[in-house]
Amino acid sequence: MAAVSQTEATNLTTPSSNNNGSSSNTTFSISPVTLQKLPHLKDYIPQQGLKTQPNPLEHNPFYHPSQGFYISHSDVVLRHIVFDLSESFPSPASSIAYQRAGPRDRIFFDPSQTRAAIVTCGGLCPGLNTVIRELVVALWDLYGVRQIFGVKAGYRGFYSSEPVELNPKLVHSWHSKGGTMLETSRGGFDLQKIVDGIQDHHFNQVYIIGGDGTMRGAVNIFDEIRRRKLNVSITCIPKTVDNDVGIIDRSFGFQTAVEMAQQAISAALVEAESAVNGIGLVKLMGRSTGHIALHATLSSRDVDCCLIPEMEFYLEGKGGLFEFLEQRLKENGHAVLVVAEGAGQDIIPRTDAQKEERDESGNPVFLDVGGWLKSELKKWWARNHQNDLLTVKYIDPTYMIRAVPANATDKLYCTLVAHSAIHGVMAGYTGFVSGPINGIYAYIPLEEVAQSKNGVNTKDHKWAWVRSVTNQPDFMKV
After folding, report:
1. CA distance linking residue 249 with residue 240, whole number of Å
2. Kind and range of the H or E element at 280?
3. Cα–chain-centroid distance for residue 284?
4. Residues involved in catalysis
5. How far is Cα 277 from Cα 274, in angstroms, rounded to an integer?
6. Half-sphere exposure of 54 (CA within 13 A, CB side)
7. Following CA atoms 223, 227, 228, 231 in sequence, which dihedral angle do they give, to the nearest 10 degrees?
8. Residue 208 and residue 236: Cα distance in Å, rounded?
9. Fewer Cβ close by (within 10 Å): the C or N end of the chain?
10. Per-residue pLDDT tens digits for 368-382
11. 138, 183 in Cβ contact below 8 A?
């Protein structure tokens, strides 16, 4: 954590040297950094339209606020914490800071007049029900809010159905269930109808749980609310089992997904070891990033090859995938191959119609890379090893992984991120995302997160660890 008194960018100080030019005893210091401006209701609501009051946590019997309990404007979280002091210092742009998450001493909403809406959008992810539960319980118990509503079926629920009243008793056991009790959907984004629905139901706090597509929609909702000058705070809680949301350390549900993927890999290993020339093929979630496949491979240690969207590969010829698998079969009699769903999409043959196909969220429809690899493996083997057996067992655990309840680690994450979101909204912030940065929860402008991506860097140490575990080549043609 670093403290700043203003939002200006300044350079890190240069090192000082002793008289002989050596810098062995150099002292380094960091000047104030660039604090990203966080949208606030007072940016567009006249001062007379906003009333503040002391935070009710001051009188909550379970809290004993002391000095330092409340977060101040000068409490920030640095985005980058690793610097190479032996080289030139980074530019101010690399020393970005965000407001630290947590309770403020004054709030901008009267709990008795607060009407909070919670909505889940997009695909399923472990932990959705835990986030909903923690939002309801914390709003109720910490701040005394009694008007809490669940919006059914994603964004379209704002205008297509009546919201459901929520309370701690109703959501008490939701954290033990997979999926979302509020139901979800893709598409249905009609900006004017959604904001009209927010107005018609007199919601003044909106908690949106969703991935990158959902957040891009939330940016538009925030802009429209600001254009209409509505006293409504909107926040997003990032949800993506793929862990592809940028800036934050990770998103909830990811660790559960990696844990569940172990079961599929273990089953693939058993199938492969139990057959003559057996190959266990596992397809894991990961449209644009291979984080689940990468972490599952590192955790398992039973994987012979890991393919992710961030890397290119080819099938036949010297240095290709099939040559590598053939060598593994000769050495061990079996092989386990893990592939992310977005890997190899550029080399799978497809018709013109398939190239244009889109899902409800407007994303390109991916072909089944697992099924294609299985087919190509069998055809290649039949051409080159006509008298030898080959068994390929294909396992796709996608819906098993995303439909389970969150594990203990993700449940704790869900609690912290939900509480962080509530504290920020109550403090009058809007158009923001809550999430951990270098282990500390922070508030990040929604638009910044919506535009960011968290891809796997195949040039960093973590991908090198994967290759050291699998001993796979880089599959680059020479």
Report:
1. 12
2. strand 278-284
3. 16
4. 242
5. 9
6. 6
7. 60
8. 5
9. C
10. 999 999 999 999 999
11. no
